[in-house]
Design a protein that fits this description.
Layout lengths: L6 H32 L13 H12 L7 H30 L3 H22 L11 H26 L3
Length: about 160
């Protein structure tokens, strides 16, 4: 990089990278149970009902706006939370990486691990998921791998967006 990118540029590039990382995570989440079966592993049982982003959207609607959401609106709001969360983490990554300038694979690994750690502590504390100690080891391992994938894809995309062509 011969010129210094502005904070807005690195934030925007990070958000875009986070969206691509979220797309990879979402695709992997949909394929993980099938892949585990192919490897002779029983996929972890998914808790029935709403996904964590939908639960969060419902909590915000009821707690902040005193509104109930229809199932369809919860799903849409849940998707907005899911993608917005991924973009926000990506923006954070862009800001951090523009300052730290770590090798992208290393930083992607650290970043994915950080996102996994936050998810495994913040989500249970908000009542969105059970704590890791109450979930099967396979599910915890799958969640870690999925978050690492998110970190690696986000780091790689940010690297390409920030490289001069």
């Amino acid at each position: 990089m011969s010129r210094h990118e502005s904070a807005l540029e690195v934030t925007a590039k990070g958000a875009v990278a986070g969206l691509v990382g979220t797309a990879a995570l979402t695709l992997a989440m949909s394929q993980a149970p099938k892949l585990m079966k192919m490897m002779g592993q029983a996929p972890p049982r998914q808790g029935g009902g709403k996904k964590p982003p939908e639960k969060l959207a419902e909590k915000v609607a009821e707690g902040v706006f005193d509104q109930s959401l229809s199932d369809e609106t919860q799903q849409i709001a849940g998707q907005a939370v899911h993608w917005g969360y991924g973009a926000a983490w990506g923006a954070f990554y862009g800001i951090a990486q523009s300052s730290l300038r770590l090798p992208h694979f290393l930083h992607g690994t650290i970043f994915g691990g950080l996102v996994a750690a936050v998810a495994s502590t913040l989500m249970p504390s908000m009542g969105l998921t059970p704590p890791p100690t109450e979930q099967p080891a396979q599910r915890n391992a799958m969640q870690l791998v999925l978050h690492l994938l998110y970190g690696w894809v986000t780091a790689l995309v940010f690297h390409f967006l920030s490289s001069e062509g």
